[in-house]
Amino acid sequence: QVQLVESGGGLVQAGGSLRLSCAASGRTFSSYSMGWFRQAPGKEREFVAAIIWNGGSTYYTNAVKGRFTITRDNAKMTAYLHLNSLKPEDTAVYYCAARPSFYTGSLYSTGQYDYWGQGTQVTVSS
Q1: Which among 103, 102, 109, 86 has a CA at the least distance from the CA of 18?
Q2: In the chain, fewer beta carbons within 10 Å around the N or the C end?
Q3: How far lies 124's CA from each of 11, 63, 83, 117, in Å?
């Protein structure tokens, strides 16, 4: 079992920045790939970014490329999502998720992750 707790959300003006954190507890954090997803009101949960177990590869949805950065610190058992140049359309609840690194399915798919946090709200005002 892995428990995930997100933090760092809030209200920010367009163009601003936030750093989301996802603190993990339980099993060995470094054996998991981590993903960030978001869900806006009335919309499905969508992929934002993912990072493999050692941070060697990262993946982003096109809408956030060049603005968001996913990182991880295995010693601290924490994954991060750095949000820059925020836009009103980035407003959503952001969730972190974990899956064993040996999974071979798409990192972009919600169904490929076993563990989820409770989410943190990000609101971007125009």
Answers
A1: 86
A2: N
A3: 6, 15, 11, 21
What's the N-to-C CA distance of the chain in angstroms? 40
Exposure pattern of 100-126 as b/e (b: 16+ CB <10 Å)? eeeeeeebbebebbebbbebbebebee
Burial class (CB in 10 A: 0-12, 13-18, 19+), 50: buried
* Cβ–Cβ under 8 Å, residues 94 and 80: no
Q: Which two tokens stand for residue 117?
A: 């946090």
pLDDT per residue as tens, the chain (126 positions): 899 999 999 999 999 999 999 999 987 899 999 999 999 999 999 999 999 999 899 999 999 999 999 999 999 999 999 999 999 999 999 999 999 999 999 999 999 999 999 999 999 999
